[in-house]
Design a protein that fits this description.
It is a single chain. The chain is 68% helix and 0% strand. The protein has ten helices and no strands.
Length: 258
């Protein structure tokens, strides 16, 4: 069985083989991004921009899990099962993230997804204008230095995707706005040195966060809803495992300085 609602919404429902395609694509883009940051000294802007596609796909997969649980059960599922599970993986991953990557005092992305699951679950009990207000507040909070990867806008992105999956009209405002801003944590510091190159990079980052993920999701929706091929916790385990692998390659094969 295939998805039938691609023409009815700009964010269609994806399940089965299509959802696994989304997860596999997210993993591939993440590896490209981390090869650049961990092994190439962040020297490749093309690889960096490709990496911007990763987090939106993570958030879409999260939103789909809550969407499939339904409006009535989605909040409890998010609070009692999905978010606690992500927090556990986030805590286990944090030491690996700390010693393998140079990300300063920012906590790893699984914390962002865990808080995002909480907000997405709560959004099922909110009015649409309340979700929109929270998205706008989250974008405003990106002015400050982030505590975890993708910061406040990243926390609201699963809720924005969930709103779109439920066919809410305000998602046409929420989702593109939050997608465009997820890389702009501490954007207050951007104004200290304004340049055409910096403005161009910001526009490019926003584009790669909005357009490719939506196109990939729409393509995945044409795939069968049956034929899953990835384990349930594939991304949860792949995330710390690939960081360990890249760290080992850099340390013992490429002999990069620590």
């Amino acid at each position: 069985m295939y998805n039938k609602n691609i023409s009815k919404t700009f964010i269609p429902q994806v399940d089965g083989r299509g959802l696994d395609f989304i997860k596999a694509a997210a993993a591939a883009f993440m590896v490209i991004d981390h090869i650049n940051s961990m092994l190439l000294g962040s020297s490749r802007i093309d690889m960096f921009l490709i990496g911007r596609i990763t987090f939106p796909l993570f958030c879409f997969a999260l939103a789909m899990a809550l969407f499939k649980a339904g409006d009535e059960k989605g909040t409890n599922y998010a609070m009692r099962r999905y978010a606690p599970r992500l927090f556990i993986f986030a805590l286990l991953t944090e030491p690996i993230s700390r010693f393998s990557r140079d990300i300063g005092d920012v906590y790893n992305v699984m914390f962002t997804l865990a808080f995002g699951a909480v907000m997405a679950g709560l959004s099922l009990r909110m009015k649409d204008w309340q979700v929109l207000a929270l998205c706008l507040i989250a974008i405003a909070l990106m002015y400050f230095e982030p505590l975890f990867e993708f910061s406040a806008a990243g926390v609201m992105l699963p809720a924005a995707f969930l709103m779109a999956l439920r066919g809410r009209p305000l998602a046409l405002i929420c989702l593109p706005a939050v997608l465009a801003c997820i890389n702009f944590g501490d954007y207050g510091s951007y104004f200290e040195e304004v340049s055409a190159a910096k403005a161009g990079l910001m526009i490019a980052m926003a584009f790669f966060c909005v357009v490719p993920p939506i196109l990939l999701i729409r393509y995945a929706a044409t795939m069968p809803k049956t034929g899953r091929y990835l384990p349930k916790y594939f991304l949860h385990i792949f995330y710390p495992a690939h960081m360990l692998a890249l760290w080992a390659i850099g340390r013992y094969i490429l002999q990069l300085p620590t």
